[in-house]
């Protein structure tokens, strides 16, 4: 670093120097976030307020977390503020932002070589809440590390960094300090969301500033074990008619109800599991009702496996086909891959104020992160947060084989809280949208009928209704 030159202490010069320091400080503060007025692919100015930026966290701020903040379109001064953590780990929050709960969505037409178009989303959650979409952990989306060592992350470290991010963001946006605050996410977000909620609660109790007006958390089809697969996949497949009565009974006996870890010496169980895997092959495990893409999966986050993301593979597939005519997408993965084409467009990244020199190709779900899953089981965090009186909404698309709703209901029951509003229908526009139950620990569980692992993909209006009622303390 250059040695600071000693300057003469002339009064006028000192005043000028202090003014320059002040201007520079204000300039640095303003650089924390930038307002986006226009987005490539959307006609005209945006009819909502979008801010994007980076906030440095960790030692020497070597981790730079990218965020997109959208202000509530109703009453941002008092409406709840939500921070969104996506799944993976390693998935960018751009997927829910531009394909589900944000104010614009990508038009569901297959890629034709031109920039995908954005259209207004009538079911946006930002009609009732403000949302910070955070690319976390480092290496997700547009977030990056300034040093190689800082690219290493884990469940606990990512949660600590997200907490630091929130405090710094609220310091830069003091007008939101008194807004009701909720932590939210889906899928593998079921691990960091309760940890982050606990960190915020502890910080408030310890008097850490700024105090965050934490009210609770929201989770969709949440993972609760940092490693392994849900043990209720086989029972769920049986309930949904994917396997026969005879195979299910044999599986129960031979595997003794344990399908997560198979003893290789148990030949009958191994044989039955091979039969099970063959029967669920070519079934989209994130929503068993919908068509599969080829290769036969649409899983964008590769939740429990390694390898390239489906977004990358579909990107290559589109380029091989050299499609030049837009047609309706045949499956959800084709729709999701539009985000990949849009987010990697140079004009889009310029509009979003992305630091282009810091990233290579934007990837929807970075499955090669140097990431350690060290949190174990998240259920104790739910139990502890319940004792502190925080509200929670846990919802499940009821056709998800990845994290079946019966898996979620099992750990909720393990908390042993009394039921105060028993299993009943909840209604959207005169139709049954799912089923719900409320517990004495201020936890609401809800299914989304026909929904999958990401329930708002196919049921956006129903999910917005669910959120709107719950966030305003109304029964579903």
TrEMBL record:
Keyword Membrane: no
InterPro entries tied to this protein: AB_hydrolase_fold, Peptidase_S10
GO process terms (BP): proteolysis; secondary metabolic process
Residues annotated as signal peptide: 1-25
Gene Ontology molecular function, alphabetical: acyltransferase activity, transferring groups other than amino-acyl groups; serine-type carboxypeptidase activity
Keywords, ordered alphabetically: Glycoprotein, Signal
Coiled-coil positions: none
Recorded family membership: Belongs to the peptidase S10 family.
Stated name of the protein: Serine carboxypeptidase-like 2 isoform X1
Native source organism of the sequence: Coffea arabica
Name of the gene encoding the protein in the UniProt record: LOC113705884
